[in-house]
Amino acid sequence: MNWAAISFDWNQIRAFWATAEEGSFSAAARALGQTQPTLGRQVAALEEDLGVTLFERAGRSLMPTKAGLDLLEHCREMGAAAQRISLTASGASQAVEGQVRITATDIMCLHVLPPAVAQIRRVAPGIEVDLVAANDIRDLLRREADIAVRHVRPEQADLTARLVQEATARPYAATRYLEARGRPASPADMAAHDFVSFGNVRR
Q1: Inter-CA distances, 201 with 42, 89, 130, 148, 151, Å
Q2: How far apart are CA 90 and CA 103, in angstroms?
Q3: What is the dihedral of CA 184, 190, 193, 195, to 10 degrees?
Q4: Longest alpha-carbon distance in the chain
């Protein structure tokens, strides 16, 4: 590659290209959000650098000369390449990848999350999901996890919470226990009973 030969000003090329496509300096200036004198100076500078005349007047319009038409083909190729570069850069900046740590209870990690993780894998294979099975409440602000699936509302104001799904839980008791302690008749009666559970039931 002869890098020394690539010395043109892209702004001048764009000014010429827009003028050739739009047909006049004023129309090109509106399309590019610039002033007409600025575009005129850029095209004049390009003509001087190349040593050719790029436009000839046809009434109020500008028509590319033979040299202008030849240059226009290259400009269109450059424009297509520039657009591809922008799209590639945009796609890279929006790429969904990296590690995401999700914490949930043992039961949730075992029975509920595996299908969701499989779906994430299909949709965004660049994401590495790290499941943290924990029955205590992990601190998201300390980056102990990125996402927490919990049955309680977060108490930290800086977190974003979203209701994903409603769930129903049922307590069960052995017949012998109920005969000894009595059968609760209301939710308030549950406070006097013993529970076997994961973690701290008061949280």
Answers
A1: 73, 49, 25, 17, 11
A2: 31
A3: 120
A4: 105
Answer for the pair 135, 199: CB distance below 8 angstroms, yes or no: yes
d(CA 39, CA 55): 13
Alpha-carbon gap, residue 44 to 12, rounded angstroms: 9
Nearest CA among 133, 19, 4 for reference residue 68: 19
> For residue 138, what are its two tokens?
């992990």
- Output the pTM of the full model: 0.44
Calpha distance 153→29 (Å, rounded): 55
Q: What is the pLDDT of residues 47-81, one digit of tens each?
A: 998 899 999 988 778 899 999 999 998 888 887 77
